[in-house]
Design goal:
With 227 residues, the protein is α/β, with parallel strands linked by helices. The protein is 22% helix and 30% strand. It has a single domain, classed as Metallo-beta-lactamase, Chain A (4-Layer Sandwich), CATH 3.60.15. It contains 6 helices and 16 strands. The strands form 3 sheets. Strands 6-5-4-3-2-1-16 form a 7-stranded mixed beta sheet, with helices on one face. Strands 7-8-11-12-13-14-15 form a 7-stranded mixed beta sheet. The longest helix is centred in the C-terminal third of the chain and has 11 residues. The structure holds nickel (II) ion and manganese (II) ion (MN).
């Protein structure tokens, strides 16, 4: 299983057979070098409706015929844009030909549409089973005690956690979240895209090493990790 950081909060997962994009925000993403018309996808998994997460989903899905997996109201909105969708709900899981997707709790907000103010259900995190590895992407979220439930039920191989503060957890909250979730490896995301979410990923990495058993992995945009 190979995971590639596409910048901001966007991630590409591939086990050599199935390619999954999580929150493919490329157009207008100052960290992204990949163009939406260059990207392949079998599935697009979304954490919530905000523009810096839905991003190029509609254009990519219409071109590649990728199935969009999203929470219910966001899935309905994507369907209204012509996408093929698989709606889900927080706490729910579903098997797919590649493995499975499960939605987890996130404390944040969610909106879509031209102004971004159209309510599209709850924001969420996801746990994806691909290539016999468990990948957790927390989406945008505050630190929540519910994260401990993930460690009670699952052994996460690779976690993506936001560290940029302002809209989400800051570095110290994300380090605490790493301790709650207990992933084998943790990648910081959702930082340095714009000034309000400036954060030093090396500070996060140092604190993860000092305070948790996880291995921090700082990825530059388009850098990959194989697990
Ligand atoms: Ni958001
Ligand atoms: Mn965001």
């Amino acid at each position: 299983m190979e995971a590639t950081f596409l910048g901001h909060s966007a991630v590409r997962l591939s086990d050599g057979q199935t390619t999954i994009l999580i929150d493919p925000f490329l157009t207008g993403n100052p960290q992204a070098t990949l163009k939406p018309e260059e990207v392949d996808a079998d599935y697009i998994v979304l954490t919530h409706g905000h523009g810096d997460h839905v991003g190029d989903t509609v254009a990519i899905a219409l071109r590649t015929k990728a199935i969009c997996v999203a929470t219910y109201e966001l899935a309905l909105w994507l369907q209204s844009q012509g996408c093929e969708v698989h709606p889900m709900g927080i706490g729910g899981a579903s098997d797919f030909p590649f493995g499975s997707v499960r939605y987890t709790i996130a404390h944040h907000s969610s909106g879509a549409g031209e102004l971004g103010d159209r309510y599209v259900g709850n924001p969420a995190g996801v746990i994806i089973d691909l290539g016999a590895k468990l990948i957790h992407h927390a989406g945008d979220t505050a630190l929540t005690y519910d994260m401990k439930l993930i460690a009670e039920r699952f052994e996460i191989d690779l976690a993506f956690l936001p560290i940029g503060s302002n809209f989400t957890m800051d570095i110290d909250d994300a380090v605490t979240a790493t301790g709650f979730i207990q992933p084998k490896r943790v990648v910081p995301v959702h930082y340095n895209t714009w000034p309000p979410i400036a954060a030093d990923p090396e500070e996060f990495a140092e604190k993860v090493r000092a305070r948790t058993k996880a291995e921090p992995v700082v990825l530059a945009p388009m850098e990959s990790i194989k697990i």
